[in-house]
From TrEMBL, chain A:
Protein name as it appears in the record: Exosome complex component Rrp4
Domain S1 motif residues, every copy: 65-137
Compartment annotation: Cytoplasm
Family matches, as Pfam families: ECR1_N_2, KH_6
UniProt source species: Candidatus Heimdallarchaeum aukensis
Amino acid sequence: MNEIFFENHAIVVPGDKLATGHFKYGSGVVRQDNNYYATVVGLFRDRGDYISVKSLKGKYLPRAGDLVIGLVIDVGLTNWILDIGSPYVGVLTSMNAVTKRFDPIMADARKIFDVGDIVLAKIIAFDRTKDPNLSTKERGLGKLKGGRVIEIEAAHIPRVIGKKGSMINMIKRLTRCQIITGQNGRIWVQGKKIQDELRAIEAIKKIEREAHTQNLTNRINEFLNSKR
Amino acid sequence: MAGDGSVKLIDEKTGKRTDGRKFNELRPTKIEVGVLNNADGSALIYMGNNKILAAVYGPRELHPKHLALPDRALVQCYYRMSTFSVAERKSPAPSRREREISKVISDALNSVILTKDFPRTTIDIYIQVLQADGGTRCASLTAACTALADAGIPMRGIISGVAAGLVNDTVVLDLHDIEDQKGSGDIPIGYSATLDEISLLQLDGVFTIEQFEEAVKLAIEGAKQIYEIQKEALREKYAQIRAEFAGEPEEEEAEEEDTMEIVSQSLAESEASVDETAIDEAVASEETEEKKTGEKTTIEIEEVSEVEEVSEVEEVSEVEEVSEVETDEHQDLVSDIAEELNEELDEDEKELEKELNSLGTEKPEENDDTTTTNTTESEDDETEHEEINDLEE
């Protein structure tokens, strides 16, 4: 009585009837009676009793705990507004930015982060009724200096990272670049030479284009070696 | 506007229409997806001689903010006909008809988009009719819905738009321009094949109940055919790239925990690149200004020692041992604070010295004595000594 109509990894579109019967279902699936339909264009995932559709495109939706790369678009007296590439702007308050007490009368918020700065931050709370709250208090978080930031589909970030980080570590090794992936689809790349950065970016763009294909790690390996 | 039906539009012998179609035949339809780079999603539909472009932006922040809905996204649709889209130049001013079509299309799309996933945002759909040949509202709806799917916006199903109409008392599918104008009625329908739901239904002209039912049935059949074309167009975009690498071994991407691991890893790496000192400096700058003279620090220490005394008095009255321990702690605290402050003061002095050196012979006025004496010339020293001697005498 449980029946699945698509192969694993098949490309599905909204309205496709994925299965009938009793399943657990994740993102990209709606249930109507005992039928399960896709809601986005994506890859069908069949894990036995659990089905989901992995979207191939779409805006980044903030989640608590995500690491994001934001662009400061506004500075308030004690807070900063960051564009995090989602429909909602990120709010970073001084409380979540500096460890010492922040006195807006004596200190200037612009000296910490100014408009146009690229900031690595963590989302600490998001409940959809308010804009997401960010924090830069943890070690390693804060303003990113130098390098360049590229934007790809947020849905493809896991692919850029690869199983157990295989893809990202390979790119780092072969291009000798520092790479930071934000889960909002922004990637920060810094290399000693411009050519290295450009090679890394080219590789990442290739991953984005071919994210839904197989054997990608090997192809990127060849690609980077041929470009050297 | 429906005509009086007096013009012959169907050949009585063959039963074919003016463009050679049968009564239940669609015009040749083609959809291209992802034709615009700047839009989040886009689609271009060719339906007979119709050419319509749909672009989707969003979900994105809504301006003006007061329009935002607290629990779901607002779907805003803008249907526009180009001035060159019809034989006689269309006035570029937005017409009543354009506003009506914008409204019915956004209402139809609202019924399938999962708007509750994106509260307080807007989803904007821009539809530009490049070339019109009748039935543009249906073709626009088809294109808009395909563009939404291309933008990755979650929907319960895909709507396909098609019209059925009455021509020479015969119910026909998908009216073109002449049939639209000279025929005696048309019924545009928006229909989702998978949900079996009608999301748009309008009627122009006069139909009997039988004719109406037949027209709706015919339109639904047509919509199902269009749905297949939409599906194919959406799949095509990704299938093409996939076909290039068909047959290669399977590969897994990062799981949730992998992603988190790598993210935290990159966090550690980023320490070198993140500019932490800047933050501390900015915060510290407020303190340095306060403590240039060192007066404030001494006051703070005094204050703390006062507190300490008060606590001593209070606690002695209760238990002696405990109060001793606690006062010890207080003293520790005080000495700690004093040490910290001294350290910071030392740093401040060093900074001031640096500043002085960089300034050269120019002497800033607000410096404290120790640093000024270092740089003052011997002559000044002598005069100072003389003055002091005078005073002593």
